[in-house]
Write a structure and sequence with these properties.
With 187 residues, the chain is of the alpha/beta class. Helices cover 57% and strands 14% of the residues. Strands 2-3-1-4-5 form a 5-stranded parallel β-sheet, sandwiched between helices. Helix 1 packs across helix 8 and helix 2 packs across helix 3. The longest helix is centred in the last third of the chain and has 21 residues. Bound molecules: BIS(adenosine)-5'-pentaphosphate (AP5) and magnesium ion (MG).
Length: 187
């Protein structure tokens, strides 16, 4: 199978985590989650860790250069034929532009999957998860949606205008969404 690079983007709670896992189980491709990366740093008892933790809990996106640092670190560690699924990278324009530039430089063809879900459904899902998982940022859903609108929507528009976006209706059952994604990726 050819080497693939897949991005999942969309609103907080749109299903990036669930769908990247399903895709990984099917293909064996590794997942790199920006949220997991930031949460690991937030657990560190350092000035940077404490700053990251306060921003995550407030529902704010990290600076684009920090996300880019995590992205490049992960990208540089990939071997030549290693396919990869990026969950949550490319949320601000400079980060997305650098991702496109670096992948193009490396001759890695990539696909961007946008999981489309309404605000109402997002609020419903994250309210349910708050009670089960207790993720602190699930108390800051409005703030996360505001950050999404300000920073990530222009990224989605950029990918769309370049014809690079695969749009998937994320408001159906997990399995039906996964089938659609597999079809769109030709796997
Ligand atoms: P991150 O961890 O990526 O959080 P997020 O984008 O807010 O997304 P979630 O993980 O909450 O949701 P998801 O889309 O993965 O959906 P899930 O599958 O869990 O980022 C956390 C923070 O890190 C950011 O706020 C920011 O501070 C920082 N950060 C990360 N990346 C960054 C970047 N690039 N730049 C700057 N800062 C960055 O599903 C959600 C819920 O819905 C679950 O309970 C799930 O079971 C359920 N669900 C999923 N699919 C379905 C379905 N089809 N039907 C019904 N329920 C479903
Ligand atoms: Mg997630």
């Amino acid at each position: 199978m050819e080497t693939r690079t897949i991005f999942f983007i969309g609103k907080p709670g749109c299903g990036k985590g669930d769908q990247t896992k399903l895709l990984s189980v099917k293909t064996g491709w590794k997942i790199l989650s920006s949220g997991d990366g930031f949460r690991m740093i937030a657990d560190e008892d350092t000035p940077v860790g404490r700053k990251v933790k306060s921003e995550i809990n407030a529902g704010l996106l990290a600076p684009h250069w920090f996300a880019t640092y995590l992205f490049l670190k992960n990208l540089f560690s990939l071997s030549e034929n290693e396919s990869i699924i990026f969950d949550g990278f490319s949320r601000k324009l400079p980060e997305a532009e650098l991702a496109v530039e670096s992948l193009t430089w490396l001759d890695r063809v990539f696909s961007v999957i946008h999981l489309k879900v309404s605000d109402e459904e997002i609020k419903h899902r994250l309210a349910l998860r708050k009670d089960i998982e207790g993720r602190v940022d699930d108390n800051a859903v409005d703030e996360r949606l505001k950050e999404y609108r300000e920073y990530t929507e222009p990224v989605i528009e950029m990918f769309r205008s370049k014809g690079m976006l695969i749009e998937i209706d994320g408001e159906r059952t997990r399995d039906v969404i996964a089938e659609d994604i597999n079809l769109a990726l030709g796997i």
